[in-house]
């Protein structure tokens, strides 16, 4: 998705600009890991946006803040960093000249340390995703969080959703993106299903697609994806491993990756993956940009799938929206 040489060139510029964040880190976690990891993710996003939104006019560079990438194309209605946590990725993007918001269940002490420009873009909000419904009379989904903006089909793809180790929100990224007519990138970490923990080997009933460990021989895209993900499917969590280990039982991480890919496909997105050059073993990014449908009737089937999927979760009653300022974690309380 992103050229390696272009990534390296831009990463060095971004690192020079933002590496000082290590010295002002406010959280108890390792600053070097978080800062350089999020610089890498921001670099990847900037290059992906530039290639995705080419042809759209980028905003005019501000006189007081010019960047070598000011001419880059970008999401017309900005980004939404869902489950932004410490707000670092949002801060790096905003201070690099990009428009967007970071959304989380509670504020972190680091938010105010980033300065007023970033602080004004960090929002505390609980998300009731079970309120999403398809309204056939309107021809669109309703009940979306306000922070996602308009989901008018004429404005499709103008908002870009980011799920950076977003925990419980990770499987919801393609669901939200389809309902909001948005694009997204998700970097999975912990194993969450749509309303519970992901436990593929326990054969628990979970809303969503099949969670089998093996790609379907009849699905060429699954076979191609399995070839890309051979390291994690073979039991190693390092996406940069050069040894194919297809004879081993897939790891829980590998099973989860396949399940997320199937869910993304069911939500009408082609599955594009890339191993990010970041200091993390959970470094695979899923991009949802290209759509699988060719006709209105095919899109209608995806609308129906997403509507019924959210309805199933609603009926199970396990997903519970937490109030803002709750304990640290995600956006929902899980029972059962």
From TrEMBL:
Q: What is its EC number?
A: 2.1.1.211
Q: Which reaction does it catalyse?
A: uridine(44) in tRNA(Ser) + S-adenosyl-L-methionine = 2'-O-methyluridine(44) in tRNA(Ser) + S-adenosyl-L-homocysteine + H(+)
GO cellular component terms given for this protein: cytoplasm
* UniProt keyword annotations, A-Z: Cytoplasm, Methyltransferase, S-adenosyl-L-methionine, Transferase, tRNA processing
Q: Where in the cell is it found?
A: Cytoplasm
Q: Which domain of life is it from?
A: Eukaryota
Q: Which GO terms describe its molecular function?
A: tRNA(Ser) (uridine(44)-2'-O-)-methyltransferase activity
GO BP annotations of the record are: tRNA methylation
Task: Give the enzyme's main class according to its UniProt record, as a single word.
Answer: transferase
**A Pfam family per the record:** AdoMet_MTase
Instruction: Give the similarity note.
Output: Belongs to the TRM44 family.
What this chain does, per the entry, is described as: Adenosyl-L-methionine (AdoMet)-dependent tRNA (uracil-O(2)-)-methyltransferase.
Protein name, as recorded = tRNA (uracil-O(2)-)-methyltransferase
